[in-house]
Amino acid sequence: MTLSALSSRDSTLVFRSLLTSLSSPGEKVPMPTHLCETMPPRALPLLALTDIETTFCAPDDPDLEAEVAELTGSRVVSVADANFVLCSTPPPHELVLHVGRGTPLHPELGCRLIVCTESHEGDVAMRLTGPGTRPNANLSVSASADEFIAARNIAVAHPPSGIDCWLVSANGVVVGLPRTTLVEKR
Amino acid sequence: MGYVSARGGLDAIRAAERLVRRLRLTSESSWLEEDQILEKLRLLVDRVMGEAGLWAPRLAAKALRQSEGDATEAVHLLRAYRSTLPRFAYSEPADADDVSVERRIVPAFQRVPGSQLLGRSVDYTARFLERQSDDLAREEAEKLRSEASGTPDDERSEAHADGDTPQRSPQRLLEMLREMDLVVDRRRADDPEPFDITRTPARPPAARSALLSSMTRADTGALVNQWYRNILGPDGYLHEVTLGEVRHGAIDVEVRHPVTGLPVCVSSVRVTEVEAIEDLEGVDEDRTKFDVGYGLCFGHNERKAIAMANLDIACHRDAGRTQLEQSLLLTTDALDSAGFLEHLKLPHYVTFRSMIERKFAMRKARNRDAS
């Protein structure tokens, strides 16, 4: 599947899905079906949110990285400097701790990390608490994502600095983990 | 204790949202078309686009319909939508002299370079509320349509004060004043990047581009209020104001083509532009000359552009002596001020409960001291 630039309407639809997922951490929010059928869902957040004033990288997917850069005008930079980082699999500990977290004065500079997962079903059960979470909010992740969550918890340990994450499944369902959400093993 | 904190529910919030939507969509009157809003409420559409900082007439009409005519809410909707749009390119600098004027008046001079072009204006009209029946109004509309169909430029030539063919890009009065060496020359040789208030909030002391951008997106009423306060009110800044140019017209927006690198026109926007002439009289000023303030905003909104031009020069002359700049930058944005005001309606249970507890604690301490 090749990528194409999103229309402003489609861009808004993806934006709404991503916003909803961050507003209700742990909720499974579908991204627009018609887009997920024609493009890899993992690319949609980048296509919707990046432009000539943002930076990004996809270190393990150079082809997609080049296409997104061409379609959006966004600049490819290093992991540490990127506003958005896309990882095709749950990233290793070192990468998560290497992305930008912003500063107490500029927490908005913290990275938005997009992590691809096969599905939102896994063997490791997590409990989510914090603003926007429903009572008894859960998240099931695979064992490989477990390490990523542990690293993510370190990256958000000093608010307001931190990172915001989206877990994007292969079928285009997104789960948001804003920096304000506490994720613990059950 | 009489005060008990309550807990708001998501269900109640969703029900309130549904109520707004249902009553808006199911009202008995006929559907309000976008074209009706665009044509019949054009000035309101222009105002919303100006305060939202987005030239998108149809979206502004949609926003006004969704907000049920609440201009500030429409600005909120439009700006929120704008914030989700990616930026594809930056426009090329546009020269205000390229504005093709539909209306141009120069209150300072009767005979001016170019000409006076009154265009569409109620400035000289007595304000009588038209109370004829809708049928009569429709009849008149039909008559006017048939009259105008043969001579499309009728109104323009009628509104042209000098009787000559109107110039669409007339020379400015300012140029004439410059030729007479009557204006302080504050043009700068360098060309700094303009301040982008959509990315970074402007704070004093700010670049002039930040001040002008803030005012061009400011709430019209707030700007008029600042102007009135400044010119008559407690700021004590009584001064002579004369308008050099009041223009309304259209200008092309160009961007560089990503392949050819050549500028291409991607849109045309209407703007109102004003130059305000200030009589310099301060001890540290050149009293033999005038200075000029500048105002420009989206759409047809002369009130705003005039206030802006006057406040631009007032701010320059003030040079930080009063809180004028701070006031303009921090208190005139519609979304900012209305948002802060309206947040008061959100639950403040915790803060108010702590205030009550402090009152009880103080009362307890006072009673203890008294005994």
Give the C-level CATH assignment of chain A: Alpha Beta
Tell me the structural class of chain A.
Answer: alpha/beta
User: Within the largest sheet of chain B, what's the order of strands?
Assistant: 1-2-3-4
Oligomer: heterodimer
Largest interface: A-B, 12 and 9 residues
* Largest sheet features of chain B: 4 strands, antiparallel
Give the strand content of chain B.
5-15%
Task: Specify the CATH homologous superfamily of chain A.
Answer: Bacterial phosphonate metabolism protein PhnH
Total helix count of chain A? 6
Shape category of chain B: globular
How confident overall, as mean pLDDT of chain B? 90
Give an overview of the whole structure.
The complex is a heterodimer of chains A (186) and B (371). Chain A has helices spanning 8-23, 33-36, 44-49, 62-72, 93-98, 143-155; strands spanning 29-30, 55-57, 75-76, 84-87, 112-117, 124-129, 137-141, 164-169, 173-177, 182-185. By secondary structure, chain A is an alpha/beta fold. Chain A has a seven-stranded mixed sheet with strand order 1-9-8-5-4-2-3. A three-stranded antiparallel sheet of chain A has the order 7-6-10. Chain A starts with 7 loop residues before the first helix and ends with a strand. The longest helix of chain B is centred in the C-terminal third of the chain and has 22 residues, at 349-370. In chain B, helix 3 (42-52) packs across helix 5 (71-83). Chain B folds into three domains: 10-83, no CATH class; 96-128 and 160-332, no CATH class; 341-370. Chain A binds chain B through residues 8, 11-12, 15, 48-53, 72-73, and chain B through 81, 84-90, 199.
